[in-house]
Specification:
With 504 residues, the protein is an alpha/beta fold. It has four domains: 39 residues, no CATH class; 124 residues, no CATH class; 184 residues, 3-Layer(aba) Sandwich (Rossmann fold); 67 residues, no CATH class. 51% of the residues lie in helices and 17% in strands. It has a seven-stranded mixed sheet with strand order 8-7-10-11-12-9-13. Strands 1-6-5-4 form a four-stranded antiparallel sheet, covered by helices on one side. The chain has a two-stranded antiparallel sheet with strand order 2-3. A hairpin with a 2-residue loop joins strand 7 and strand 8. Helix 13 packs parallel to helix 15. The longest helix is centred in the C-terminal third of the chain and has 63 residues. About 3% of the residues have low confidence. The structure holds adenosine-5'-triphosphate. InterPro entries: AAA+_ATPase (IPR003593), AAA_N_dom (IPR025753), At3g28540-like_C (IPR058017), ATPase_AAA_core (IPR003959), ATPase_AAA_CS (IPR003960), Mitochondrial_chaperone_BCS1 (IPR050747), P-loop_NTPase (IPR027417). This is AAA+ ATPase domain, ATPase, AAA-type, core, AAA-type ATPase domain-containing protein. Keywords: ATP-binding, Coiled coil, Hydrolase, Magnesium, Nucleotide-binding. It comes from Helianthus annuus.
Amino acid sequence: MNKFNMADMLGHLGSLLASVMFVWAIIQQYFPYNVRNFFEKYSQRFLTLFYPYIQITFNEFTGERFKRSEAYSAIETYLGKTTSMQAKRLKADVIKNNTQPLSLSMDDHEEVADDFNGVKVYWSSGKNILKTQSFSFYPTTDEKRYYKLTFHKRHREMILGEYLQHVLKEGRDIKVKTRMRKLYTNNGSQWSHVVFEHPASFQTLAMDPVMKQEIIDDLTTFSNGEEFYNRIGRAWKRGYLLYGPPGTGKSTMIAAMANFLCYDIYDLELTAVKDNTELRRLLIETSSKSIIVIEDIDCSMDLTGQRKKEVKEEEEESDPKKPIKPPENEGKTSKVTLSGLLNFVDGLWSACGGDRLIVFTTNHVEKLDPALIRRGRMDKHIELSYCGFEAFKVLAKNYLCIQTHDLFERISELLGEVEMTPADVAENLMPKTSPPDTERCLKSLIGALEAAKAEAERKKLEEEEEKKKELLAVKAGEVKVVNMVENGEAKVANLVENGSNGSV
Ligand SMILES: Nc1ncnc2c1ncn2[C@@H]1O[C@H](COP(=O)(O)OP(=O)(O)OP(=O)(O)O)[C@@H](O)[C@H]1O
């Protein structure tokens, strides 16, 4: 009996559904769009009288036809984490990133809940399929995806303000962290890029640990400082000057900075930039969350000489008596000037928004114009120097996976006496066999350090000999002069004596 009733009920339900669908199909087919729209509009209004929830739709494409909405993309990324825990149907996409190979988002018509400060909100995904007007035999469809946010109307203010800001910021931050980072280089006025996959990190960077921590803290404060920079009315940028002999890790540190902050790198070849206008254009094209690097700044332009010339020109220009003469550069290809570079560092271009680090490197800090590297322009001066024992320990850990060894004491002694760059120390620690023969590598380093020490001592001796010789030469010269003076005096005395005797 029960069985029969059930089958009967299902039969009725089936025919009811079929009828509803039939009627809906008829309405869609024959009722004009305006009439349907009218019913939909008023039924919605009627429902909102009793429905305490508010809905916001974020469409994938807004305004410009092929431009994906930034908000949609940030929401998609934000929901990625929640989605993988809650939704039953997910969409996966491959992203080329070491830390996270797959990006997950919820499939169409899924719903997930999110909790913010104890308030529950619901996100659902959907798509509208529009039939495009076309004369093709196969009608084409246009899919418009969207996310819908639903929340109770009593939380309106908080959701529209704080929560949405939080979602967009989190989404953007996750995106920055998981995106493939790029290394841009300029060929004249054009940037071209490759994927940036340098493995350097602060962990593998060999330097004094206190200094390293200081840099990490500084970078963290800077990257979280949007509000602070806004408050004090300064462009959100920071200048770093890295200086030290070749092979001390300046380029490696830039790579470590980019990996730490998840920023892109713009490696600016200043010598390829025609003039200040081109420099400005290149800078305006840089994106936020990036490091703009000018390596070997002292070789990129004659800063000292040029600065003097510029100062002289400025002085001459301000002299009213001076006749006006045509500019020297007219008709010639001009170069970037120091003042152009200073404008760039000072952030005249900061109107393009976002945070940027500017990093200059040099092997000869003393050659740079003080105006270029004064605080406020280059906020942090970092000296990368010869390898100390602490830096060596980092390299030993990286290259040989050891934290301590009997030979460390000797190495520590030698490093205190000899100047060797981390690049040279690393080269000696490079395993030549597999598995690495730790002792052999350490002994190779000791051998190199002893050879360097002997060489330094030999040079010192040579220099001392040279100095001695110079001193002797000076002394010999002095003796000669004294002799000459004495001879001269004797002659003069003779003459005087002869003169007083009346003989000429
Ligand atoms: N402090 C360091 N920590 C770890 N590795 C380092 C360090 N310094 C140098 N190296 C190693 O030496 C190589 C050369 O270093 P890097 O190019 O960073 O030096 P640099 O100071 O930029 O030199 P240059 O002034 O010639 O450009 C790197 O590939 C890296 O492997």
